[in-house]
Protein: Alanine acetyltransferase
Amino acid sequence: MFKHIINEKLELRLLEARHAEAVYEVIEMNRGYLSEWFPWVPNTKNAEHTKTFIENELRRFAHNNGVSTGIFYENKYIGNISIHEINWNSKLSSIGYWISSEYQGLGIVTTCCRELLNYAFETLGLNKIEIRARTDNVRSSAIPIRLGFKQEGILRQVDYNNDRYYDHVVYGLLKDEWRGK
Amino acid sequence: MFKHIINEKLELRLLEARHAEAVYEVIEMNRGYLSEWFPWVPNTKNAEHTKTFIENELRRFAHNNGVSTGIFYENKYIGNISIHEINWNSKLSSIGYWISSEYQGLGIVTTCCRELLNYAFETLGLNKIEIRARTDNVRSSAIPIRLGFKQEGILRQVDYNNDRYYDHVVYGLLKDEWRGK
Amino acid sequence: MFKHIINEKLELRLLEARHAEAVYEVIEMNRGYLSEWFPWVPNTKNAEHTKTFIENELRRFAHNNGVSTGIFYENKYIGNISIHEINWNSKLSSIGYWISSEYQGLGIVTTCCRELLNYAFETLGLNKIEIRARTDNVRSSAIPIRLGFKQEGILRQVDYNNDRYYDHVVYGLLKDEWRGK
Amino acid sequence: MFKHIINEKLELRLLEARHAEAVYEVIEMNRGYLSEWFPWVPNTKNAEHTKTFIENELRRFAHNNGVSTGIFYENKYIGNISIHEINWNSKLSSIGYWISSEYQGLGIVTTCCRELLNYAFETLGLNKIEIRARTDNVRSSAIPIRLGFKQEGILRQVDYNNDRYYDHVVYGLLKDEWRGK
Amino acid sequence: MFKHIINEKLELRLLEARHAEAVYEVIEMNRGYLSEWFPWVPNTKNAEHTKTFIENELRRFAHNNGVSTGIFYENKYIGNISIHEINWNSKLSSIGYWISSEYQGLGIVTTCCRELLNYAFETLGLNKIEIRARTDNVRSSAIPIRLGFKQEGILRQVDYNNDRYYDHVVYGLLKDEWRGK
Amino acid sequence: MFKHIINEKLELRLLEARHAEAVYEVIEMNRGYLSEWFPWVPNTKNAEHTKTFIENELRRFAHNNGVSTGIFYENKYIGNISIHEINWNSKLSSIGYWISSEYQGLGIVTTCCRELLNYAFETLGLNKIEIRARTDNVRSSAIPIRLGFKQEGILRQVDYNNDRYYDHVVYGLLKDEWRGK
Structure:
């Protein structure tokens, strides 16, 4: 029921238990591609698991500790974008996302990210947002770069998936840098 | 961040912890009028209490057990409208509401109610919604009557407030009756 | 061990875990008849489930939130009668019951009800007790009528069982009406 | 509401939250005498504390883990007698009691104990009940002795009260010994 | 990682989850002998169960309520010795132990016990430690006797194992008696 | 009771509730210096708070999720060194430390760190350990540098303390790099 309208085609919706089937279907369709990048994919075995995930994410929102939203394009669920756990002492959090392969390359995630950055900086009053991407994920890195994030480091072997370790580039954006935009 | 837009002036927003101050302020402003009708008013002593209420209501939403939304008029918080706990076996729930006195008489609650009825019947798939009003609350009763609810009974002395008992009229609307509209 | 003696043949006993077998047996014997009226019957699949029910009901009693008692006739368990959750602000609760088919028609439930009404009004100090019955359950409705309850309404489609909805008659009795008796 | 009737004057009642005031009053009246024997007395500072105690004891009963009952003489609360936590593997528990000073010496506790022993052995199916008394508490020791318990040992310094340690005599009674009676 | 070194061969180590396999293996090897004496043996069916046991014991330690340690001889796990739950009001606890059959008769448990007694009396400031042994377990009783414990009683039928009841000898040692050593 | 002996003067001990006083005293003595670097210092107002911290850290250890140890020099508590929460999927954690000012400059933390690295890599089987230090904390950065950690980035404004934000240098060490040493 609750949404954040971005433009006539694109919305972020707060996922509810009843969305579990639709979300799981898109994960299922993108399983090959998603499992290449995310360690949580093999554990997502059915819509019931997705329902539990949605309920946990809503509980996180209820505790004022970040939020997970569904990306809807022309009323169709096509991916997720989230503000992760918030360090309220440092007013610091990070953003993560994935989108169905057929909708990639249209700038959708960048647009959604911009909205969550506004929410994070203006509404929640956070001071810094980080985005992390695997060094071999050029597509994912393009988003923070386009949004003016600065590269702050490369953390080695912090991501284990499909039997090997991957490095993460850390990008950071400060409230002041965003305001300047 | 999350809202359900009704028209250019009116929105239902999912309340977050950060709204507590604004909500409490409106309760404070309407304290005299609200305490006449609702037993929860004397216990609402500060914004911290309102924050706890909001967090509990979000948790209820997270458990797929109804939802509490803030009514915003021209971006200003002016009251609350909620779907109470859901009996999923009978697909039954009820709706409750209150609105700042200065915004009464404009049909705002009726309009909001209509949206929640759509959400309840069409999205959640409920079968029946009840609205209860004190027999001496003509203004409140006008809403279900206007929306086509049928009066189903008068439950005696079910509401204790300000040292006396009050009766409740129960109004009910079935999914089929709503569909017919 | 704990009982409320009504007369030389009839007692209300606080059910303990060790009663689970005996209770389940009577449910099993009356399964056909009970499942016609109560949605909880299909989920009651074994004595272990009944044990959990008894423990939950005792916990409710421990929290001063109503009580579930076993009806014993000549030392034999024959049914249940309960005070449901209590709304302490309105000093309001309801009573529910069922009895093994072979003991129906003897006025046993009416007698037990009278005892629980005394407990509710005199001991707990409640102000009102409701009894709800399906409109097609003449036998069940006879009890509140006999005890002087007033019919307060017919709530439509609030009870879903065996693939259809049923209406409930609500009967209410006030403390003052009981005192007058 | 629930009681175990022993004779025309004496009953064991399952304590409910509403008894807290009456129980606390008797503790208050006997504070000097009770604090001589029991380390829990100084912490019992008001009826609210007693209410919490009663709720915890009911929860223990709900978990099939012993029971705490109020001794009522001519409908007046005069003390407590309990079956403590049960070791279900060994079918072993113990009994504890105290009674208002003015009712001591009438054999009331012995009579109540006999009832709880029947409940423990016959109803719960326990195999052994122990009673422990401070070596300087002749009055308390008289009860298990009168009931046929055997002295099984003197545990040194297991009870700390009023700045010194006391020894406990352990008395034990087996189911078979009770049956023989 | 954490240990209490007793001598060049013998250590008490705080068990961590990662020790579960090694502990289970020794239990498995001694299953026949252990199940003769301890009722918990049949329930210990795999290393996962042992891991849960270790985690529970660590939680007990975290709550300042006794500790369970692994006996390591020449860096090999060979048994357990524990301080059970502590009665902080009476500053009273008990010690329990078992050791792999091939290491019995070397005085290892006596030596470990001495260390735990020092910890209990000197570090935790307890006032009394009890050790209980089945009357038919001469080997186990030898330990408290050797350490100067006094026999305080024989509790009848407090231990149920392999379809029969066993008696326990209770041995006790006071802080003052230990200090004198 | 449990310790990891490093050399004749230096030990890491698993902190227990009873250490709270000693730990708090050292925090109190170093309050000026510690509050310059750590946001948790102002909240540490008494030994009771330190006791809660120790119990939480022990619970973390019980859940196999890192460990907090006290640094003891000549049997005197002088600081803390911890393995923080563990990401078991990536086998990744970080180490943090502080030491009483009078013991700085003696290489004590470096020595302790080396032990925890062994524990992390060899015993727990982790793959990477990070150490983070404020960019203005030269003394703290010297430790990972001396131990062969590689600088992986500078995360901007991730640490809020005394009304301003600070940057963190992230140092990382892989299991393979440690093994090579």
Q: What stands out?
A: The longest helix of chain C spans residues 47-62.
